[in-house]
Amino acid sequence: MVAFCIEKGETGMKICILSSSLSQGGAEKWASIIAGSLDSLGHDVSLVLLRHEMSFTVPKTVKVFVLDHSSIIASARTVWRLRALLRAERPDVLVSNGFYTGQFAGAAVIKSNTAWVCRISGNTFREGLTLKEKIAWWWVDRCIGRAAAVVCNSQGLMRQVSKRWPDLGGKVSYLPNGLVFDEGRRDIGAHPAETPHIVAAGRLSAEKRPDLFVAALKELHTRCDFRATWFGDGPLYDEILDLIRAEGLAEHIELPGFSDQLSEAIGDASCFVLCSDHEGSPNALAEAMALGIPAVATDCDFGPGELLGDGRGLLVEVSNAGSLCDAIEQTLTDPQQACARAERARAWIDDHLDAGEVSKDWVALFQSLR
Asked: Which residues contact 75 (CB under 8 A, 6 or more apart)?
């Protein structure tokens, strides 16, 4: 999860981005992208990490600070260190990237002249929270009134946030996740692999539903030949690997772990699959759309419907392995229609999610708070 601190310099702003890390995860990747984009716009950008984990890269001109946050019991110390850093850097704006980072940002800006912008990137009413997550949400609920602005990365999430915190009123707005587009993107419809390659990417955790991915591909295996890859790591890795073996799919589904070069890793894909129970605005899905890969996703809260609507992809019922299997098969067996959807998807992504343009919208927001 991530946050921003900003101060006007001679030619731009001094921008400090606080993230839990720069390891795998959508929020962490967003941090690396926005840091690079803001840096390229001429701003003085710094990263503040709760933990020193860096898989994603940032420009050498971006300074990095580490707070060495270790556990819940170290939270007070982490807040103190962040508050001390804000005093030393004298930022005008602090932007937290998610509810987890928000608990630290909301506490750190007490008795401060820093304006806090709270970015929310996931379901605010999700059930089954861990104790760590419950504590984080409790703190955010207590602190959210201090926020100068609240930014959501999908329009559906923006509506939910307004319901959770109705007193925020006009402070709530929407800014999408931006993408940096590859110069050498493939021609849509060009699938180098002879055997159709089905890909998914995301943390191997319960809400991402890798078990549904396996269930759908178990049924698909009775209909056509394919190979499949899920890029990502997480707490369910061993469980899903055992499930793949138990279903007799070990020769068809691979779990290579996390890739910090996802665009290259999925370049030969015939179909991208997202099967989550809930999302914020899934970066991996948007990245696949930008690459021209036909996409299938569960129509969950939030994000997939906004990205794949209007004929840009296939949306299926949440937690329905049969429907997911049917949509994947349709994508593989009707390449003409799949490519037409992929063309519309790429054009929409290019028009709406260019990181350079999105970064300018962030800067405009920051300037409005001065």
From this structure: 69, 103, 104
End-to-end CA distance of the chain: 24
Distance CA 247, CA 239 (A): 12
Q: How confident is the model at residue 128 (pLDDT cuts 50, 70, 90)?
A: confident
pLDDT class for 193, splitting at 50, 70, 90? Answer: low
CA gap 294, 313 in Å, rounded: 7
Percentage of the chain surpassing pLDDT 90?
71
Q: Are 7 and 38 spatial neighbours (Cβ–Cβ below 8 Å)?
A: no
| Two structure tokens written together for 271 | 């179909």
Please provide residue 78's backbone torsions phi and psi, each rounded to the nearest 5 degrees. -65, -40
> What dihedral angle (degrees, nearest 10) is formed by the CA atoms of 306, 169, 144, 106?
90
Token duo for residue 260: 């910090």
The Cα 325–Cα 337 span in angstroms is 17
Residue 122 in tokens: 């996931």
Could you give all domains of the chain from N- to C-terminal order, each with its CATH number?
Answer: 2-178+354-368 (3.40.50.2000), 197-352 (3.40.50.2000)
Nearest to 231 by CA among 270, 203, 271, 250: 203
